[in-house]
Write a structure and sequence with these properties.
Distance between the termini: 39 Å
GO molecular function: DNA binding
Largest sheet: 5 strands, parallel
Strand content: 5-15%
Order of helices and strands: EHEHEHEHEHHHHHH
InterPro entries: CheY-like_superfamily, NreC/VraR/RcsB-like_REC, Sig_transdc_resp-reg_C-effctor, Sig_transdc_resp-reg_receiver, Tscrpt_reg_LuxR_C, WalR-like
CATH architecture of the largest domain: 3-Layer(aba) Sandwich
CATH superfamily of the largest domain: Response regulator
Protein name: Response regulator transcription factor
CATH class of the largest domain: Alpha Beta
Structural class: alpha/beta
Number of helices: 10
Mean pLDDT: 81
Low-confidence stretches: none
Number of strands: 5
Keywords: DNA-binding, Phosphoprotein, Transcription, Transcription regulation
Strand order of the largest sheet: 2-1-3-4-5
Pfam families: GerE, Response_reg
Length: about 220
């Protein structure tokens, strides 16, 4: 059972989420919040598997709430799926930097929202390839490049997988591209995330672009 907390300042939206998620046999809504401060307190209390977070909320906005729940230095971070009406690069980028594991728009279908919950719950990222390339490509050139830890170098195959992740490919697509099994791809992904100290695929995408592993990324 995937335990979910819904955070949105619009009661109608929260009710819709609760209805959609509650109808699923593997999802349980364990709390609701109408502002960011309440969301942070509630999530710390009930420890859900996934937090569905709006960006524009009173008292504390969704990006700052995400940072407090999943950002750098948080001892026991939770997985946050940002769902918002604002399709602005700056919002998406800041949400990811704050620690979000995925990003969807509120005009997503119920099926997409449900799939998003399940995707984030298992530790995968949730960004469409086109969004990934446009967003990270646009902002990567502004960020100081970093490099993998020399104490834990990636193997050539792990580096190849990282580059394909950064291009927005799913595990299944990577498996098809490299002609290896889906389980093998998952193993490579887990290993490279561990070596680089990254939390999930979203952060692997950001890392790859910052490290200059995607040719021409800054011009997408």
């Amino acid at each position: 059972m995937i335990r979910v907390v819904v955070c949105d300042d619009q009661e109608l939206v929260r009710t819709g989420y609760v209805t959609i998620f509650g109808a699923q046999p593997d999802i349980e809504v364990v709390g609701e919040a109408a502002d960011g401060r309440t969301a942070v307190d509630l999530v710390r209390e009930v420890r859900p598997d996934v937090v569905v977070m709006d960006i524009r909320m009173p008292v504390l906005n969704g990006i700052e709430a995400t940072r407090q729940l999943a950002g750098h230095g948080v001892a026991d971070p939770v997985k946050v799926l940002v769902v918002t009406t604002f399709n602005l690069d700056e919002y998406v980028y800041e949400a990811l930097r704050a620690g979000a594991s995925g990003f969807l728009l509120k005009d997503s279908t119920p099926a997409e929202l449900i799939a998003g919950i399940r995707t984030v719950a298992v530790g995968d990222s949730l960004l469409a390839p086109a969004v990934t390339r446009t967003l990270i490509g646009r902002f990567a050139s502004r960020v100081q490049p970093t490099a993998p830890d020399p104490e834990h170098p990636l193997t050539p195959r792990e580096l190849e997988v990282l580059k394909l992740i950064a291009e927005g490919l799913s595990n299944a697509e990577i498996a098809g591209t490299l002609v290896i099994s889906h389980e093998t791809v998952k193993t490579y992904v887990s290993r490279l995330l561990a070596k680089l100290g990254l939390r999930d695929r979203v952060h692997a995408v950001v890392f790859a672009h910052r490290a200059g592993l995607v040719p021409g990324a800054g011009h997408l």
